[in-house]
Automatic annotation (TrEMBL):
Transmembrane segments: 17-39
Organism classification: Bacteria, Bacillati, Bacillota, Bacilli, Bacillales
Superkingdom in the source lineage: Bacteria
A Pfam family reported for this protein in Swiss-Prot or TrEMBL: Transgly
Protein name per Swiss-Prot or TrEMBL: Transglycosylase domain-containing protein
Length: 683
């Protein structure tokens, strides 16, 4: 009886154990399923690691970089040679494509080896575990960190393909010396892109992450080569290379560079600063993303033009002079800023005189005034009197007496074309007051000026401050036939995966009349044309002998500012020179700096470019008329000088010049008299 009872008890216990085991297994399955569903609901972990942001010039060269002191350049797995991937897998995790984040067999082997050695002599981390550690964790060796590492490992395996994990791993592992990822390592150690690595180079690099402080060839080439040999044998064992290939790679002589590329820009530091500012203000990108987001910033900079600009400023301004300079060049069609200099020495003064300084533009403002006049019915032949004048006002404004340079005046009427070429101040102020003192300030706003214009009589002579970049933009609009552009420093921005996240806006809005723009452009060529000499020489006379093509331009000066601005249809540039604190420019040599910098830059920058693309071509509604430069009337054979002048059709002068008819008749009589025989002249 007791035996039966005992047997029953045993069966009850067994049934209870079975039921509990089934319940436990079910609970474990539910927990595992819940954990898996939770992992899937959480989705892929954000792979946000600091990466270097690179800045590219228009020719693809790197002009700058921002980072946290660690070089990281993300490359896709397709850009990495197969022997590099195979080397990593062979030495780090041979079963990578077959496990689910953890290699149980390696873990068991590592545990046994560590127990036997009574210490940690062998690790068992998979590539996925190492990637999780690189992405999310510190290097502290605690159980809590190990648990979190395991969690991230599962999360990575559950949400990413194996190739995605391998790509992330080879882009984040440390190779020492501040190089993180295979591209940074390849550039640092061998001075080449990862895609160009040989088997010997790849196998050596694959051995470095085990201990960069030990296996870096710059720390110990002997240990690096020993580790390389181990990598090659592992590759041979896995069958990805032959014994002969391993031996050849082992024997290959390697040259180590030991230098990171893309340091602080050697050229265009002012441009580089402006781009970083534009990334925040125009592209709306967060400052941390700019610094560490692995962006690819494609700028408008033309390195050849930038080098010319820096050289010209350096060789033109005397080393002993305290004069500063601001310079910018632009493609008028696109608004792309191709060169920019904010000062003579960035290290001494990073203040950008091309984009930040506000200085009086002097007579470079006059083309804007004369465009407004053209809109109001003026033409290049419109006559106004140039003479000492005091302007008096009925509205309480103080009397105003402008002066021409050196107090020279025509003391007669001159044309608008000649007034612009000679930079006559009386003509400009008369035009300004005739149009209304708000007209020029409105025109400045229309052409993108960001500084406020004071609506006073002297505004026509450039007494309200402007920025170099704003004046350049206005001249570019005139140059391109009146289409709206804005200064563009950034063409586009890509994130670390190549997705375009910003692109410069393109506008083809017509803000000026094409015909009037061309008429003004041609008027602006007059400063270099001696046919327009009058009571004074044209203002560009000092640089005419340096010109090899036709330019439109305008110079300007105040006591403390010297400007030169001008363009061809395909290139515009502006130069300002002066003292930072407004000290008066007194030396003749210093007064000529701006013009000389401008013409030397334009000539060198355009030297190898097609002349046709930079020639002025009139639109169909414009007509060329031979005009007497002195009176603006249609020239005849009697006129000693004529200049082809452009007018919008219907506004050209109808009246012929008669000022020289009597002289022509007298000259003809003299010629006839000379042709007579001597006796005919006597008798």
């Amino acid at each position: 009886m007791e035996t039966v009872t005992g047997t029953k008890r045993k069966w009850r216990a067994l049934r209870m154990i079975s039921v509990l085991s089934i319940l436990a297994a079910g609970a474990a399955a539910v927990l595992l399923l819940s954990f898996w569903l939770w992992i899937k609901i959480l989705g892929p972990p954000p792979l946000s690691i600091p990466q270097s942001t690179l800045y590219y010039a228009s020719d693809g060269s790197v002009i700058g970089e921002s980072n946290s002191g660690e070089k990281r350049y993300w490359v896709s797995l397709n850009e990495v040679p197969s022997h590099m991937k195979e080397a990593i897998i062979a030495i780090e995790d041979r079963t990578f494509y077959h496990h689910y984040g953890f290699d149980i067999k390696r873990i068991g082997g590592a545990v046994a080896a560590n127990i036997k050695a009574m210490g940690k002599v062998q690790g068992a981390s998979t590539i996925t575990q190492q990637y999780a550690r690189n992405l999310f964790l510190t290097l502290e060796k605690t159980w809590s960190r190990k648990i979190v590492e395991a969690f991230y490992t599962i999360r990575l395996e559950a949400n990413y393909e194996k190739d995605d994990i391998l790509e992330g791993y080879i882009n984040t592992i440390s190779f020492g010396h501040g190089a993180h990822g295979i591209e940074a390592a390849s550039q640092f150690y061998f001075g080449k892109s990862a895609k160009d690595l040989s088997l010997a180079e790849a196998s050596l690099l694959a051995g470095v992450p085990k201990g960069p402080g030990i296996y870096s060839p710059l720390v110990s080439e002997e240990k690096a080569k020993s580790r390389q040999k181990l990598v090659l044998r592992a590759m041979e064992e896995t069958g990805v290379i032959s014994k002969a290939e391993a031996e050849a790679a082992e024997q290959e002589k390697l040259t180590f560079i030991g230098k990171h590329p893309h340091h602080q820009a050697e050229i265009a530091p002012y441009f580089y600063d402006t781009v970083k500012k534009e990334l925040k203000e125009k592209a709306g990108i967060d400052e941390r993303i700019i610094a560490l987001g692995g962006l690819r910033v494609y700028t408008s900079l033309d390195p050849a033009q930038q080098e010319i600009a820096e050289q010209v400023i350096s060789e033109t301004i005397s080393a002993s002079s305290g004069i500063q300079a601001g310079f910018a060049a632009m493609d008028p069609e696109t608004g792309y800023v191709t060169a920019l200099v904010g000062g003579r020495n960035y290290r001494e003064s990073p203040f950008n005189r091309a984009t930040q300084a506000v200085r009086q533009p002097g007579s470079t403002i006059k083309p804007l005034l004369y465009y407004a006049a053209l809109e109001q019915g003026f033409t290049p032949s419109t006559m106004l009197r140039s003479e000492p004048t005091t302007f008096r006002f009925d509205n309480g404004q103080a009397d105003y007496t402008p002066h021409n340079y050196n107090n020279q005046y025509a003391n007669e009427e001159i044309t608008m074309a000649q007034a612009l070429a000679l930079s006559d101040n009386i003509y400009a102020v008369k035009t300004h007051l005739f149009l209304g003192q708000d007209t020029l300030s409105d025109m400045a706003r229309r052409l993108g000026f960001t500084t406020k214009m004071k609506e006073v009589p002297s505004l026509a002579l450039g007494t309200s401050g402007v920025k170099v970049i704003d004046l350049l933009n206005a001249y570019s609009i005139i140059a391109n036939g009146g289409k709206k552009v804005e200064p563009v420093f950034i063409r586009r921005v890509e994130d670390s995966r190549g997705k375009v996240i910003y692109e410069s806006p393109k506008s083809r809005e017509q803000v000026l009349d094409p015909g009037l723009s061309f008429v003004l452009s041609h008027m602006m060529t007059g400063m270099f044309d001696k046919k327009l000499n009058g009571y004074a020489a044209v203002t560009g006379a000092s640089v005419i002998n340096q010109m090899s093509r036709e330019y439109a331009g305008k110079s300007g000066s105040t006591n403390s500012d010297s400007w030169m601005a001008g363009f061809t249809p395909k290139m515009a540039s502006v130069v300002w020179t002066g003292y930072d604190k407004g000290k008066e420019i007194t030396l003749t040599e210093e007064k000529l700096y701006a013009k000389n910098i401008w013409i030397r830059f334009m000539e060198r920058a355009l030297e190898k470019q097609d002349e046709k693309g930079h020639a002025f071509s009139p639109p169909s509604n414009v007509i060329a008329v031979p005009v007497d430069p002195a009176n603006g009337k249609k020239a005849t054979n009697s006129c000693p000088v004529f200049r082809l002048t452009y007018f919008v059709k219907g506004t050209e002068p109808k009246e012929f010049c008669t000022d020289h008819t009597h002289e022509h008749q007298k000259d003809s009589s003299d010629q006839k008299e000379k042709k007579k025989r001597w006796w005919q002249r006597i008798f």
